[in-house]
Amino acid sequence: MPLLKFDLVEGRSKEEIQTILDIAHSVVLASFDVPTGDRYQIVTQHKPFEMVLEDTGLGFNRDPAKMISLTVISRQRTTAQKEKFYRSLAQQLDELCGIAPKNLLVSFVINDDADWSFGFGEAQFLTGKL
Asked: Which Gene3D superfamilies did the record assign (predicted)?
């Protein structure tokens, strides 16, 4: 936990996607102080016309082939943790994958312990198993 849901424009290789996921996991570990094995990631790929991510009036254009939308579903995080996550993820994806920071859109969806079941029909945060 957290659960990261990536929406990517199709066309990246298996290795490129794995690198993106590995970078994101590294940034999660550094930003949120979660255990190493706490890795939940889902990738959905789309045709270019299925993703429209405009600049919200900020005055830049994204590269449609490189866009990534990332939804982070998580317990509450501090503003400082979120800002570190945004900054580190953008920097590492740029340096290691050539994905310009302008092509990254990140959104957090916050929930509570009762909103998580890791299997077996139980809420492990509530039962004390986690």
From this structure: Macrophage Migration Inhibitory Factor
